[in-house]
Amino acid sequence: MGRRSDEKSVKLKTGALALFGAVLLSTYPFDPAYEASSTDIFNIFEDMYIMDIMDLDLQKEKQEEVFEEVFKSEDIPKHIEEKITGVSWNENAPVGIKDLKYLTVTYVGFDQKRHTGELVVHEKVADEVIDIFNELYQAGFEIEKIRLIDEYGADDDLSMADNNSSAFCFRNVDGTKSLSKHSYGIAIDINPVQNPYIRNSIISPQRGAEYEDRKNMRPGMIVPGDTCYNAFKSRGWTWGGEWNTMKDYQHFQKKIDM
């Protein structure tokens, strides 16, 4: 509930208490040495209302103090290694655990609130990915969620259906025997629902069908020249939305020397 709703609630509560106090004055005898009135009672509760508003402000400040913006790159922590081993990564992957970095980033959600997300990427792109997500955050670009694909059993379809933005996952390109760029930690998918994969009559995820019209701009979509597009393209990333045989609007990938 927002500040305005909270204030309305406080006003209603204070008004009700003041009315109750006035009724008490007219019903029960008070010490004649103190000639209280309904105005006195109202003033008392008005002071209570002001204190409640001040308390709301303090609560808001505390909530803002608790949340800390973070843009951090680090070696894969032990608990993350245990989490992804046998799921998004295994010993057959083209990159080792030591080639990967674990990123923690702050982003703006579709609810306009700040959230913390996590990604695994190749060490050679880690710093610029941190810069990219910092840039997206500062610009207020909305992302629904950023979770490790291991939360979905490394199932890309489930991750996309949940509109999850993710990076590393040891897997083949769908329908082929070729390794995806995600297998190297050099590809990132952003808001799959708002930026679906489209090839002929195939749209993935299915909910992305309502975003097939790229001229009808809505939050979270990526189009040429916007904040997300520029953040990646200015750093040499390729965008799947510019491919000819298919469109993968959610997908960015970077070519690096392994």
Automatic annotation (TrEMBL):
SUPFAM superfamilies reported for this sequence: Hedgehog/DD-peptidase
A Pfam entry, by short name: Peptidase_M15_4
GO MF: peptidase activity
Superkingdom: Bacteria
Stretches that traverse the bilayer: none
Peptidase M15C domain ranges (all copies): 175-253
UniProt-recorded name of the protein: Peptidase M15C domain-containing protein
